[in-house]
Design goal:
With 158 residues, the protein is mainly alpha-helical. It has one domain: Arc Repressor Mutant, subunit A (Orthogonal Bundle), CATH 1.10.10. The protein has seven helices and three strands. The N and C termini lie far apart (41 Å).
Length: 158
């Protein structure tokens, strides 16, 4: 048997039938490669991909997120997010707070420790963006962005 090529090269090694299929495969490959590269750059922090991604989402919502909302944003099931939040809480990255209006819901919020590491997460993402997306021409970036916006709308409508 021959050596298998990395999955990020799938578009080049297994040509799909149509440009639409190639585009769909490429979206997944680029997404996976992006997350892997950010995770690699954040290795000194000890944060796994699921942890840094959760912290990044939480940093964007100042009042905190319910675990169910966080699970939806991360694309994972409730039991998985429960374990993840527990690990983040045990490590001092997040706290869970019951809002006065509904004690059944627990909002997950960043701790000051997490807010400091989010600065590093954002820096790693900004550096990668500059090294990659930043090297696209204005026309390439606009065309790609426009295509992704239309695709998101079509997915939402499907």
């Amino acid at each position: 048997m021959g050596i298998m090529k990395p999955i990020t090269k799938f578009v080049d090694t297994q040509p799909p039938d149509t440009i639409q299929e190639k585009f769909g495969v490429a979206i997944g490959d680029v997404n996976r490669a992006w997350r892997d590269k950010v995770t690699q750059r954040l290795k000194p922090t000890g944060l796994s991909q699921s942890r840094w991604t959760a912290l990044l989402y939480l940093s964007r919502i100042e009042d905190g997120l319910s675990q169910s909302d966080l699970a939806r944003m991360l694309g994972i099931e409730a039991p998985t997010v429960t374990r993840l939040v527990k690990q983040l809480e045990d490590a001092g990255w997040v706290t869970r707070i019951a809002p006065p209006e509904d004690a059944r819901v627990k909002l997950v919020r960043l701790t000051p420790k997490a807010k400091r590491v989010v600065v590093r997460i954002n820096a790693a993402i900004s550096e990668l963006r500059a090294e990659t997306v930043g090297r696209l021409s204005e026309d390439q970036a606009k065309a790609g962005f426009d295509a992704l916006r239309v695709l998101q709308r079509l997915i939402d409508e499907a």
